[in-house]
Amino acid sequence: MIDYPLKTEDYRTLAGAVATFAGITQIDTVFYTLDEQLLKDNAVYSGLDEVQKNINFDALKVYAIFPVTIEHRLWGFIICNSVNVSQQRIYLSRSYLENIFNQLLEPDFNITVSVWDALDTEQLSKIRYFDTFLRASTAEGNQITTQPVKTDRNKYHNVETESQPTV
What we know:
This protein is an alpha+beta fold and 167 residues long. Helices cover 43% and strands 20% of the residues.
């Protein structure tokens, strides 16, 4: 399982910040993490079933997907409804969300959160295509094993105690 240094109360705090951002900007926004947390409407939904019940891409219509990292390690995705939202507002949203996440997390965890530029349609398509390659390989009985690399930048990540993740 993917591990991050945050606890349930930290996710609740972030959910409040995301809800405040959505309220101020009038941009519907959710945050999905790779450890199966969905921050939406000032609530935290945990586990794949809860996430799936509470995320509705059809309601978002046109969306901007911002990859989010902790110390150079992919953490999740901020998803903003971008219908009738200018490119400038989307860009400012990225900066604002990155700043607020760092203000909330850096003092307690001594980590840096980065919010990348929103993925464009072609990038998202290529990610889906790459996923197709991975699925085809594992469907043929091949096991894909990844080797995490510990760096000074992902100091909260303990490689020695983890088993080898497979895809």
